[in-house]
């Protein structure tokens, strides 16, 4: 609660024994990408756009445009990890049912250190305020602030510097103006593709599922997809029956539905609550969970996605 300073705080160290890393690391996607690039060998193309996919029982043909010129590439298997607007998914004719929520989030980054002015901030803070809601995410050298348009305010107006400044001043009033490094709007989607595999083409990450970023389950879910799928694909390329790839879908499709979308949806719904009485009731419930070691552990196993990994591993055939 921004106005009172009341909070529910969970101790991630109770996950010790369930993971080698009982703590949160905030890693931006661009940093992860650089780390992955450092591990890759061979030819990498960045100025390339996929335009069509077709397949036979023996391989996949990918048509791309590179430098304005069309090219055809052939491979044994294709992983479509090409994001929310995935051309690979669309080429397969798969459904991507779900919802797009009405609210628009305004993301702003600033070097201002909120932790010096708001007591008890952690790395990730989802806050209720009288005027609505906001989130504060600590990054090295800066904070990422999630804001929302005021009632009756258009997205375009909410992106104006004066509007951003007004909303930041509500969080920590100060004489100086905030130095805002960048702003961008985004909408929240919750969708899961019908199938993760069609023949020799498989989907992963945002191409397969979209969800609210609340709780950090988007990129992490995509990483889980990659580990699971690449382990199986490597075994197939080494001679195992490619029916093994069906297990990837059986393991992770229900996790996307029952764990990732469900939990991220609960996180979003909690933060969108405007009724003061319901907010207080939700806060008291979270505080009660945090105080109870058993309930806190169960909560953290679910929200840290460990429960989802175990659910997938339990499906062995």
What does the model show?
- The structure is a single chain.
- The protein has 317 residues and is α+β, with helices and mostly antiparallel strands.
- The protein is 37% helix and 25% strand.
- It contains 9 helices and 12 strands.
- A 6-stranded antiparallel β-sheet has the order 6-7-8-5-9-12, covered by helices on one side. A 3-stranded antiparallel β-sheet has the order 1-2-3. It has a 3-stranded mixed β-sheet with strand order 4-11-10.
- A hairpin with a 2-residue loop joins strand 6 and strand 7.
- Helix 5 packs antiparallel against helix 6 and helix 6 runs antiparallel to helix 9.
- The longest helix is centred in the last third of the chain and has 29 residues.
- The radius of gyration is 22 Å and the shape is globular.
- The N and C termini lie far apart (46 Å).
- The model has no long low-confidence stretch (mean pLDDT 92).
């Amino acid at each position: 609660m921004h106005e009172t300073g009341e909070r529910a705080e969970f101790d991630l160290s109770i996950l010790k024994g369930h993971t080698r890393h009982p703590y949160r690391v905030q890693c931006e996607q661009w940093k992860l990408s650089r780390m992955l690039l450092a591990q890759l060998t061979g030819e990498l193309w960045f100025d390339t756009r996929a335009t069509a996919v077709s397949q036979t029982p023996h391989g996949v043909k990918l048509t791309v445009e590179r430098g304005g010129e069309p090219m055809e590439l052939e491979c044994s298997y294709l992983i479509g990890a090409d994001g929310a607007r995935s051309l690979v998914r669309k080429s397969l004719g798969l459904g991507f049912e779900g919802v797009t929520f009405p609210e628009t989030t305004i993301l702003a980054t600033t070097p201002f250190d909120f932790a010096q002015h708001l007591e008890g901030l952690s790395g990730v803070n989802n806050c209720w305020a009288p005027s609505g809601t906001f989130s504060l995410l600590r990054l090295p050298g800066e904070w990422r602030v999630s804001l929302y348009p005021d009632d009756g305010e258009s997205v375009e107006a909410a992106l104006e510097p004066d509007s951003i400044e007004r909303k930041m001043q509500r969080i920590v009033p100060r004489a100086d103006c905030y130095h805002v490094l960048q702003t961008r709007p985004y909408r929240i989607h919750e969708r899961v593709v019908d199938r993760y595999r069609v023949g020799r083409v498989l989907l992963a990450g945002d191409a397969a599922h979209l969800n609210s970023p609340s709780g950090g389950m988007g990129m992490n879910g995509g990483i889980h997809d990659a580990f699971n799928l690449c382990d199986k694909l490597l075994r197939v390329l080494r001679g195992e029956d490619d029916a093994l790839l069906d297990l990837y879908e059986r393991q992770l499709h229900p996790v996307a539905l029952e764990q990732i979308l469900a939990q991220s949806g609960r996180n979003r719904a909690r933060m969108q609550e405007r009724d003061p009485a319901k907010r207080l009731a939700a806060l008291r419930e979270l505080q009660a969970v945090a105080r109870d070691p058993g309930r806190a552990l169960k909560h953290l196993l679910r929200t840290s996605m460990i429960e989802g990994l175990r659910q997938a591993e339990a499906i062995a055939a």
